Every structure is written in structure tokens, then in C-alpha cells.
Amino acid sequence: MQVNLTDELIQTKTDKDALMIQLNSTNKTAELNPIIQEYAYQVQSLKLQVAETRMELEAANNVLRQTSENTNKWAHNSSSTSQLYDLEKYNLKHHHATASSERRPIKRKNTFKVKATFLPAHRHKRYNEDLTSNADEFMDNLQNESKDEKVLHENIQQTFEDFSFPFILLDDEQDTLEALAVHTWSDEVKDDTTKRTSISVDSMWDDTDSSITTSYNNSSTADMPIIASSTTENILKGDRKQKKKLLKMLHQVQADSLVKRELVGRLEKTEDLYTQMRTTYEDKLNKLKEHLLEVQKERDVALSRKPMSPVASTPIRERPQSGLQLRENRQASELRLEYEVKVKNLIAENQALRKKNTQITQASRTTQVKADSFIRQLQADIETLNAQKKQLTKNIKAETDSAKEASSQYEREIQQLKRREITALEAKKKLEEANEVQNQLIAKRSEETAAANAQVRKLINTLRKAANAGTFLNEANLEKILDGTFVPTPTNVPSRRSTVNTTD
Fold first, then answer.
1. Exposure string for 78-97, b = 16+ CB within 10 A, e = fewer
2. Which of 50, 43, 40 is nearest to 7 (CA)?
3. Which of 18, 25, 147, 404 has fewest C-beta within 10 Å?
4. Least-confidence region, from 75-84, 166-175, 298-307, 424-433
5. Global pTM exceeds 0.90
6. 470 in the Ramachandran plot: left (φ > 0), alpha (ψ -120 to 50) or beta?
């Protein structure tokens, strides 16, 4: 593609040099009427614009292809958490979250599978294919227009070589043709004095850029993968570039329509000039015809006044009559020769004027036919450009509507996720409170068990002491042991065997 573009640029440069040489070698009539230079300059500028727009479209398509490939690779390799992070970041970049009054029950598993994350990539891909097809059609139309204008330029140049304008009819204002004010696209930063009065798309993108930076700084998910953020930023940049390119194409279409209307006006002016020239030459021919008729009448009158030859008489009387006759004959012959020369000059001038008139009429007819065909072609081009403009506006409207729908869907999903997060936080808080209460209860129970264990140990020790001392464990001693006031005292308790023996 780059080789073809370089070949086209070289071809345009050679055409430009050839046109400049041809314009320098033209006669004075071409210098007095710079329409040929105007059309040559327009053809050259259109070729350069076609080459530049093709290069820009090729670069944009390469960038968009790379971004789509990166997004597809990342979509297959990313986890559920990174998908959720990309969804939240994309939505925060495009639209701020708004609190909704309705709450819906959420029934989802712990692992999120967000299908809406992959929708922008597919939409961008389809959008890029439509854009490339529209751009190719637009480039083909521009090439056809440039070819038609080149043919028109050659035809007009041929007519100017065949026919020369009279110097009387060309005013000073018609010698210098105004340059066409073609609107061009400029990416330079505008001053504060040249701000747009209407709400433009550039301001909308600036606002979204500021919202992107604020939302990114305020987000608490700083530990998410960097690849996801870079891919989403690339997607957004490609989207912005595509929107700007669509606006650029609309601007170029409007500029081309204005140029075509200006050319139609110029052709109408040339038609008026041709009609004026024709009327002036017809008036001159009529005057010359009238003058020729008057000269012929004068010749007839002079020939009728010529004296007849006298009757033969005596030789003595013939001498004075012959001298007078010779003088009259000489005057008549001189007058006849003079009038014959005048008549020949007038006839030659009349023939030259008739020939010139036929040439002018033929040239005017050919130019009229060419102008009519060119006007019809320009009108058809204007209609096609208007149709393309309508189609582009319709496509932009559809894209904006789809973007609004996607953004609203993303906002709803964000609200649902926020509600789920709030409910999870509340459940976590409740569980933490219950855990704290259980910990306190366990601590209290452990203290009570420790005290009970200590009391049991103490009781066991006292019981052992009492057993060792040989005290009798009755109710009073047990109460003292429990109260802690028991003092072991040895008592002589008879053994069981002695008691048994006595009973026997």
C-alpha cells in the first residue's frame, strides 16, 4: 500500500510539472484567462488530498487492527476479576455512576462472567469494517471527480487554444479569478478567541478525558493488572480517532459540495460571457452588412451617373469632346477602381467575420454542451455527497445510540455490583459483631471454668487433708470445707473390723 501511495505521489508531481510547463507555454489568451491554471491547481490538490487521506486511513486501520487483536488476546487470557475491573473502569471512564432508587434482587455466583465486556471489541470491529468500506467509496468518488475535472481542464484548454477572447470584453476584474476557499481539516489547537459556539464532539471528548482521569485516581483497585487498563485505553483512543475521522470526512464532504457550487457559479459566469460576446459580434456583422449595402447603392448611383458615349460627328468637333470624355472616363475608372477595392475589402472582411462568427458559435455550442454536462455531473456529485453526508450522520447517530444503550447497561450492572458490595459489607459487619460477642462469651466461660477448676482443686486438697487427718466427713464438716473455714482435727474413729467384731 505504501509503495502504491509513493507511486501516486510521484505521478502527481510529474503531472504538476507537465501542467506548469504547459501553462508557461500557452499564449496570451491563456494568461489573460487563468481558468486553466485554476483547474490544474484543483486537480493537483485533489490528487494530493486523495493520497494523504489514503495514507491516514491505512495508518488508522493498522492501529485499529492491532488494538482489536490485543483486545481479543487479552479477552481470552484475562480472569474474572480482571474482566470485572475492566468493566468498572470502562464505565467510569465514559459515564459517572448515578444512584438509582430501584433495588433488584441479585442471584449470582461468586465467580462473575461478564459478557458485556467483549461487546465493545466486536462493535469496534464491525464499525471499523463499515468505516473502511465507506472510506474506500469516498476515495473512489474523489478519484472519479479528479479524473472528470482533468478531462474538463483539457477540453477547456483546447477551446481556449481554438478561440481567443477580444480584449475589449475582458475587464480587469475578469482577468484575475479569485481562488476557491476550500475548507481544510486542521488538528492544531485553537485559541480562546476562536472557540466554537455550538456543542461539539471535541468538547465532549475533553470532558470524558477529564472524567477518566478523576475516576482513575479515585478508584481503589490499584493492584489490578496493568494490561487490562492499557487495552481499554487503546480501545477508547481508537474509538475517539474513529469519531474524529468521521467528523473529518463530513467536513471534507461539505467543503467539496461548496467547491462544486462555486464551480457551477463560475460556469454560469462563463456562459454569460459567451452570450455577451455572441451578441456583440452579431451586432458588428449587422452593421457591416448595412455598410456594405450602402456602398453598393453608392456604386450603383455612380455607375448610373456615368455619361453615355456621344454620336459620331465631324472630326473638327470631336477633339474637345474627346478630351472631356477622356477626363470623365478617367475619373469614372478611378472611382470604379476605388469602389471595387472597397467592395473587395468589405467582402473579405465580411467573410472573415462570418468565419469568426461560425467559429465563435461552434465554440460557444461546444462549451455550452460541456458546461451543461459538467453542471449535470456536478449536480449528481452534490446529490451523492449529500446522500453520503446523510448516511454518515445516520451512522454516527446509530453509533451514539448504541453507545448510550451500552453505557446505560453498564451503569445498571455497576449499580447492581455496588448494591451487592453494600450487602456483602453489611453481612461482614454483622458476622464480625457476632464473632466478637462469641469471643467475649468464650472468654467469660473460660474464666468461669478456670475459677471452677481452682475451686475443685482446692476442694480436692482439703478433702485429701481431711482424709489424711482422719476427720469424719459429716454435713457440718462439708459445709466448713465448702466455706473454706475447715481446720482438720484428728479423731479416733474405730475401724470397721473392730465394729464388726463387737457386733458379732
1. beeebbbbbbbbbbbbbbee
2. 50
3. 25
4. 166-175
5. no
6. left
